[in-house]
Design goal:
The chain is about 30% helix and about 35% strand. With about 150 residues, it is an alpha+beta fold. Strands 4-3-2-1-5 form a 5-stranded antiparallel beta sheet, with no helix packed on it. Strands 6-7-8-9 form a 4-stranded antiparallel beta sheet, with helices on one face. The longest helix is centred in the C-terminal third of the chain and has 24 residues.
Length: about 150
Amino acid sequence: MSTTTTPKWVFNKELADLKGKYITVVTTTGKSFNGLLKAWNPDTFDLCLSNVNEGKNSYFKVFLRGPIISEILISEQPFDLSGLALELQERLNLLEADVKLYEDARMIQVLNKVKVTEKGVEGTGPVADRVRVVFEQFMESLAEEEEKDE
């Protein structure tokens, strides 16, 4: 079994995808901490959250030890990177090989020149400009879908 398919690796990748997202951590004592996932220790499962709310209390940072964590709840839907890659391929009339999706790095590379993440487009020139337009329209459609759901 390759290293990238072991259950531990897959679990840690899922947790890595949540970095920078708001999560709720429920402890074995029943306390709920809602905050931004900043860091974690994959060996001990300790977590570091920032901008934390726990009941009526607010904290700048909270460190939670792995053994007291009962549940981790995610209310934000993860960014659809594969959907964006497909959209770029179709809208820019590119071959599948021209739009490379790197799930582990959470990025897309277009024509080996332009890097795209959920945060934006990196690159200059006509290709980057065209990618940026598709990215912005993709983000607008996501925002519209969220408004409909509310």
